[in-house]
Specification:
8-stranded mixed beta sheet; globular; alpha/beta; homodimer; 305 residues; Rossmann fold; N-(1-d-carboxylethyl)-l-norvaline Dehydrogenase, domain 2; 11 helices
Chain lengths: 305, 305
C-alpha cells in the first residue's frame, strides 16, 4: 500500500495522516478549503509523543487527489453521512477503514458504494492546536478487523502499515469483542460525563452510598453486557474493570462528549448510545438506563438549538 | 392571629411577609444582618401582580423579634436545618408552617422543638430583584394542611389569614394527596430541566420518537405514582396531566433546580428526589429512573466542588 488518503483531519485523522506520510504517499480530504490549503502550504506538525513536520497533499474533493489504496475515514460520527456522500462514486478499488466511536459506521459507508471495508476502534488520543498542528497525547493502539469484502489478512496488512509508521496498531480476526467492550464503556462514560460535567474521575467507581455515581455506571454497564450477550458477542474486556482502571490513572480523562456539550456541539449520541439502544430493541433486551441517557443528551442538544 | 414571623426572605418568604403585613404585624428572620437592616430601613417592595411597599420588622435572631403566633419557615430546603437550629428554644407557643418543596420539612423542624406544625405546598412564584424587592409572577395558591399537634381548623384559620392578605390559599383536611402530586411532578421536572438545560417546555411532553424526552418524563412519573400507591396516598392530580398542561402555557417555566445548577448552587435534590427514593426503598418499590436522576444531580454538584 503506497497511497493512503485520510478523510477528516481532526485529531485522529491528523495523527494517522502525519505518521503514515513517513511510509506512504498521503493525502487528506478535508471539509474546508482553507484547511486543505493550510495543510498543502504549511504541512502538518506533530508534537507531544512525536515531533516532526509531515508533508501531505490535501483537497476538499476526491477529484483533486490521487486514488488511494487505503482510505481512512476519520471524521466524527456526526459528519460521517456527509463524508460518505462526498466519496460516493470515487475510488472503487480502495479499502475503506472506519474509525468512528460506537458501531454502525461501516453500515453508513456501505450505503454509498461497494468499497471493501475494514472496521477499527482507536484508543489513541491527542489535542488539536491548529489546522496544521496536532499534539500526540496517548499512544495507545488502534485495533483493526475485517468487515464487508475484506479478510483478516487485509486487516493485518493495514495494521502492519500503521505500526511501521510509528503508531500502535493490532489486527483481529473478529473485532466485535473489542468493539463492543469499547461501545459499552463509551456509552456509559461519555453520557455520564456529559450530563454531570465530571471528567472520568473517581466518582465513576464510587459505591459507598446508594446515591453514589458508581451504581449508575455499573447499571449502565450491566445493561450493555446483557445486550452483547444477546447479540452473541463475547466481550474482550469487562467495561466495569476498564472503568475502575481508568479512574485510577493520575489525571482524569475529559471524554469527548463532555467537550461537545460544553462547546454546544452536536454529540455522537446516535452512533454510541443510540446504536446500543437500537441493538437492544432489535434483540428484545430492556435498557431503561441507556434510553434515559439518550433522551437526556438529545434534550440537552435541543436546549441550545 | 395578629403577629406573624417569616423565616427566610427569599421569593416565597418575601411574598408572604409583604402581603401579610397588610393584615398582621409581620417580622422577617433573615440569615444576613445586611438583609435585615435593608428591610427595616427601606421596607419590602412588591411589583408584578401587586404593587405596594410593605413595612416590616426584621432581624437575624429570634431574640430581637416579638413572639409570633404563626411562624412561616420559607427558606430553601437546603437551609432548613440551619434555620431550625436558630429557632431551637424560641417561641414554643407558635404554630410553625413549612413551605419547602418535597416532603419531610416538618420532620426536620420537629427535631428542634415541640411546636405545633402545619404543612403546605405553594404554587405561587416570583422573581427576586433585590433584598427589598420581589416581583409577584404567578398568583397560584398555597395549600395548607394539619401536621403534628394541629387540626384542620388550624389550617383553615391560617389559610383565611393568608387569603385575606391578597394571596391565594386553601386548607385541606389531609394535604398528602396534593403534596405527593407536587412531589412527583417536582422530582421529575426539576431534575430533567437541571440535567438538560431545558426550561419546562414542549420537549417534556414529546412522545413522537422513542428517544423523545416525554418517555423519560412519563417513566419518572409512573415510578412516583407506584410509590404513592404503595404509601396509600391517593393523588389529588395526575402529575403527567400537570406536566402536559404546564408545557402548553405560553412561556416555559424555568425550574428552580435548573437555576441552582446554572449558578453552581447546592440543589434541593435531597428533599425532593432523595425523599421520594427513600420512601420507595422503605416500601420496597423499584425506582431506577429516580435513582439515576439523584445520582446524576449529586455528581453534577460534585463537579463544581
Amino acid at each position: 500500500m503506497r497511497r493512503v488518503c485520510v478523510a477528516g483531519a481532526g485529531v485522529i485523522g491528523s495523527l494517522f495522516a502525519a505518521h503514515l506520510s513517513r511510509v506512504a504517499e498521503v493525502s487528506a480530504l478535508t471539509r474546508r478549503e482553507e484547511h486543505a490549503r493550510a495543510l498543502r502550504e504549511q504541512g502538518l506538525r506533530v508534537t507531544g509523543r512525536a515531533d516532526f513536520l509531515a508533508r501531505i497533499d490535501a483537497a476538499t474533493s476526491p477529484l483533486e487527489l490521487p486514488e488511494p489504496e487505503l482510505l481512512i475515514v476519520a471524521c466524527k460520527g456526526t459528519d460521517l453521512e456527509s463524508a460518505a456522500e462526498r466519496l460516493e462514486g470515487h475510488w472503487p478499488d480502495a479499502i475503506v477503514m472506519t474509525v468512528q466511536n460506537g458501531i454502525g459506521a461501516g453500515d453508513v459507508i456501505a450505503r454509498y458504494g461497494a468499497w471493501r471495508l475494514l472496521t477499527s476502534v482507536t484508543f489513541m488520543s491527542g489535542t488539536r492546536h491548529a489546522d496544521t498542528h496536532v499534539e500526540y497525547v496517548l499512544d495507545t493502539a488502534t485495533w483493526i478487523g475485517p468487515a464487508r469484502g475484506t479478510t483478516p489478512e487485509d486487516a493485518r496488512r493495514v495494521a502492519e502499515l500503521i505500526a511501521s509508521s510509528g503508531l500502535e496498531a493490532e489486527a483481529f480476526d473478529d473485532l466485535r469483542p473489542a468493539q463492543w467492550s469499547k461501545l459499552i464503556f463509551n456509552a456509559t462514560v461519555n453520557t455520564v460525563a456529559a450530563l454531570t460535567g465530571l471528567p472520568h474521575d473517581a466518582h465513576f467507581a464510587a459505591l459507598a452510598e446508594p446515591s453514589d455515581l458508581g451504581f449508575l455506571v455499573r447499571g449502565l454497564i450491566d445493561e450493555g453486557k446483557a445486550v452483547a450477550a444477546a447479540a452473541g458477542v463475547p466481550l474482550r474486556e469487562d467495561p466495569w474493570e476498564m472503568n475502575v482502571l481508568a479512574t485510577k490513572r493520575g489525571s482524569a480523562h475529559y471524554p469527548s462528549m463532555l467537550e461537545d456539550v460544553e462547546a454546544h456541539r452536536r454529540t455522537e449520541i446516535d452512533t454510541i448510545t443510540g446504536a446500543l439502544v437500537r441493538e437492544a430493541h432489535r434483540l428484545g433486551v430492556p435498557v431503561p438506563l441507556h434510553e434515559t441517557m439518550e433522551r437526556l443528551i438529545k434534550a440537552k442538544e435541543a436546549s441550545w438549538q
